[in-house]
Amino acid sequence: xxxxxxxxxxxxxxxxxxxxxxxxxxxxxxxxxxxxxxxxxxxxxxxxxxxxxxxxxxxxxxxxxxxxxxxxxxxxxxxxxxxxxxxxxxxxxxxxxxxxxxxxxxxxxxxxxxxxxxxxxxxxxxxxxxxxxxxxxxxxxxxxxxxxxxxxxxxxxxxxxxxxxxxxxxxxxxxxxxxxxxxxxxxxxxxxxxxxxxxxxxxxxxxxxxxxxxxxxxxxxxxxxxxxxxxxxxxxxxxxxxxxxxxxxxxxxxxxxxxxxxxxxxxxxxxxxxxxxxxxxxxxxxxxxxxxxxxxxxxxxxxxxxxxxxxxxxxxxxxxxxxxxxxxxxxxxxxxxxxxxxxxxxxxxxxxxxxxxxxxxxxxxxxxxxxxxxxxxxxxxxxxxxxxxxxx
Length: 392
Fold this sequence. Notes:
Largest sheet: 7 strands, antiparallel
Number of strands: 13
Structural class: alpha+beta
Helix content: 40-55%
Strand content: 5-15%
Radius of gyration: 28 Å
Oligomer: single chain
Number of helices: 18
C-alpha cells in the first residue's frame, strides 16, 4: 500500500513480494514527496482487487480492477480491467483508510522475521471448512444400540441404493437420491484434489502451512474450487426443492429395505421398535427443509462453498506443548518430502532456502534455527524459483 499525503492511496500487489521491492517503492515515492509512505497489509483480500484512490480537495476518484501498478498493468500491455468511480463512495474511502491503518510500517515488518516463530507467521494456514452439510440421516442408530448383542449379530451387511455403506444399517444419503434423480454429473463434494495442497503446503497438526510466495496461487485455485462447489450446491438445492416427493419416496424405499433385511435375518425388532419406525417420512422432510433453507441463504451458501479456510498461524509460542506439536509435525512433513523423488514446491522452496537436500527432521530444525539468526533472513533470502509458478 502506498500513500502520498491523502492525495493518493493504492492497494496493489507487487510482482516481487520481497522487502527490497517494497523499499525501492518507498525510495522512489520518497524522491517525489517527503510525506510519501508505504505499508505492508495483512488483511484477507487487500491485495487481490487493486484499488487506486486519488483525492484533491474535497473531490475523490477511485479506480478499481485487476491492473497492477506496473507499466504492463497500466499501459495496456496486459489484458486488465479498471473501473473509474467518480466521485468515490465514502465506503471506498473508509476502506482505504482502514487498510492503511491495519498495515505495518516496513521497518516494523522486517523486525518480525528474525526468529522461528516469526518465520512461521510469514505463512498462512488453511483448514477444511468447519460447517459441513449433514446430507445423511439414520433413524436406526438408537434402535441398533438397544438391541441385545445376540440380535445385533444377526444384522447382515445392509444394502440399499439410497444408504451409506457402513456397519449395521447405513444412513440414508440424500446425495444418492440426487445422483439417481438426474443424468448429469453428481454434485462435487471434495475440492482438495483441485487445490493440491500437498504441492503448495507443508501439512502440520494445525492445518496446511503455505509459504507466503505461494499464497496467491493457492488463493486463485481455492476461488475456482469454491466457485465450482457453489454451482454444484446450487444445483443440488434447486433439484431438492423441486423433487420433495421423490426424496420422500426414496426414504420409504430405504425404510422398507431395512425392514426386509431384519425380517430376513430373523431379528426380533418388534420388542425394541414400533412399526412407525419403518413408515414415517417426517424426519427426512424436516432435514431436507433445513438444508434447502441453509443453501437458500447466500451467506450460508458461500460458507458451505469454501474449499478451505485461511487463517493466521495461531500464537502458540507460550504453550510449550502446542509449539512442540506444531513444529514437530512441520519438520517431520518436510523430512518425508525431502526423501521423495519429486519434491513438492513448498518443500523445495524451504529446503533450498536452508541449503538442504534429503534431510532428517532434526537437521531441518537446526538449519532453520541457524538461518533466522541472520537479521532479516526470510525477507532477504526466502525467495525461490517457484515464484513464477513453474517447477524448477
